[in-house]
Design a protein that fits this description.
This protein is 78% helix and 0% strand. With 410 residues, it is mainly alpha-helical. 61% of the residues are buried.
């Protein structure tokens, strides 16, 4: 007797809305990934250090409120948190083109918008990850994470190219409108999502429970050897992302001489691998198990990212999209496998704190990466900062590669 095929998640109405909101929001974010640093670099003529500071400003919220955000989110229903975060991000980003049209846009406002956007993103990401099990159930977590990874990869495929074209056609500040509209659209879709969720945190009495609840999330992660290794990989990946975000726009546009449109297309081409990885990830995890899938993906990612530092003008410019495409397959498989693993072993009442703790440990180094990129770019040149970003990216998966027992995880 053959086993019945699993239902398609796209037939679940509320998952369609949830995943649709995620897709729209991520597409806009990828546009801003191009538009915001180019606004600073091209419109405001920012120095490498000032571009690095902008990157750090958007990411520092993960260090400041990353841990308490999980405890707060576990005390609340997730949907209102998601809608409010989207609405505030939309308003903050709309202030950039408005100020540009009035002729009053400056770096202080860009830093303030980056801080607000980062703060909202912390709460959105924690609530978003924690909301998924309430919508699809634990048996469908790998496929749910695969869909979200596909959204991310498709956004990375289309978003930078759209962003580069918008910057070239309309100027960088006006291109930011696309991200603001995407957050507004995401909020509207999320308003229609219904899920059977209950706040998992305990009632607050004078605020005395906050730090013990945070500690509960930290202790859970500390007691799981696989999660500790995954967190170390994430920390190195996000350190390289901070370096990358502050360095690559300057390196490709100022040093290599790429136009904003070409810059966006180069980043988009690299996302092709992510699309393939999102399709492969649930199948690889089902065939190998999450542990072996993580281990194999870590090896592949290390090999594929090694050539990135050779990127230069001329034919060597093609190294960037090819290496990013190849590594995108591996890193997406790794991301989906670890996401499904950590949510499958976590008690429901700790989901928010697990997400927040992992985000804090993984994403906390991002602002340091932005500051390091700005400092290296200012003192040693943008090319050296680019090499540093590539080097950290290549070595990021070593914590998993040095732990062969991860292959034994079910």
């Amino acid at each position: 007797m053959t086993e019945a095929a699993p239902r398609s998640l796209w037939r679940v109405r509320h998952f369609r809305r949830y995943a649709g909101a995620d897709a729209i929001s991520k597409l806009g974010s990828e546009v801003s990934l191009v538009a915001l640093p180019l606004t600073a670099a091209l419109t405001l003529h920012a120095s490498p250090f000032e571009v690095g500071l902008l990157t750090a400003a958007e990411m520092v919220a993960f260090l400041l409120v990353g841990l308490p955000a999980g405890a707060w989110v576990d005390r609340m229903r997730r949907r209102p948190v998601l809608v409010a975060a989207d609405a505030v991000r939309a308003l903050a980003l709309l202030s950039v083109p408005a100020a540009a049209l009035l002729g009053v846009l400056g770096l202080p406002q860009m830093y303030a918008v980056a801080l607000v956007n980062g703060l909202c993103t912390v709460f959105f990401d924690v609530a978003h990850q924690s909301y998924l099990p309430s919508i699809v159930g634990r048996e469908d977590l790998a496929r749910g994470h695969g869909t979200l990874a596909a959204n991310q990869s498709l956004a990375q495929l289309a978003g930078p190219g759209i962003g580069g074209w918008l910057v070239q056609a309309l100027t960088a500040p006006i291109a930011v409108v696309a991200d603001a509209l995407s957050y507004a659209g995401s909020a509207l879709l999320l308003l229609g999502v219904r899920a059977d969720e209950k706040p998992g945190g305990r009632p607050v009495r004078g605020g005395g429970r906050l730090w013990p609840e945070i500690a509960e999330g930290l202790l859970f992660v500390a007691g799981q050897p696989v999660l500790r290794r995954v967190a170390a990989v994430g920390a190195l990946m996000m350190l390289s992302f901070g370096l990358w975000s502050a360095t690559v726009p300057l390196y490709l546009v100022r040093e290599v001489g790429a136009s904003p449109g070409t810059y966006g297309m180069l980043l988009s081409a690299g996302a092709v691998g992510g699309v393939a990885g999102a399709w492969l990830a649930p199948r690889v995890a089902a065939r190998l198990g999450t542990g072996r899938a993580m281990y194999a993906a870590a090896w592949a990612a290390t090999v594929c990212t090694a050539p990135l530092a050779l990127t230069a003008a001329g034919p060597r410019l093609l190294i960037l999209p090819v290496a990013l495409a190849a590594s995108g397959v591996a890193t997406t498989v790794f991301s989906v496998a670890q996401g499904a693993y950590r949510q499958s072993i976590c008690p429901p009442h700790l989901l928010g704190r697990l997400s927040a703790t992992m985000r804090f440990l993984m994403w906390g180094p991002m602002p340091l990466g932005g500051l390091l990129a700005g400092t290296l770019g200012q003192l040693a040149g943008v090319r050296v900062a680019f090499w540093a970003a590539c080097g950290v990216y290549t070595l990021a998966h070593l914590p998993v590669l040095l732990a062969p027992r991860i292959r034994e995880v079910a």
